[in-house]
Design goal:
By secondary structure, the chain is an alpha/beta fold. It has helices spanning about 1-15, 45-55, and strands at about 20-25, 30-35, 40, 60-65, 80-85, 85-90. It starts with a helix and ends with a strand. The chain has one domain (about 1-90).
């Protein structure tokens, strides 16, 4: 009976997702807190777009920059900016 109870408690526990807040310090030393993990991603560099796809997060990318063309599904993501060297020009049209 104890094994069945323990199994039931375990199954109930794993059926509810963890809801821990995510807290980071950004480049301006400001704390940013998210209640849950980000579900939409804007990639601001072609190499980051490729890394996101490699990590399995390609379906969450909602916008990227010019030259984000690898892997091939990245070519269909809307472009919001032109990244040239260290300059970034963003257009929100």
């Amino acid at each position: 009976m104890h094994l069945a109870t323990a199994l039931l408690v375990f199954l109930i526990a794993i059926s509810f997702p963890a809801r821990a807040a995510i807290r980071v310090i950004d480049d301006t030393n400001e704390a940013v807190t998210l209640d849950t993990a980000a579900r939409r991603i804007v990639s601001l560099a072609p190499n980051l777009t490729e890394l996101l796809f490699s990590a399995g997060a390609g379906a969450h990318i909602i916008a990227t920059v010019d030259y984000s063309d690898h892997p091939s599904p990245a070519r269909s993501i809307p472009r919001i900016a032109e990244a040239v060297a260290s300059t970034l020009k963003v257009s929100w049209s």
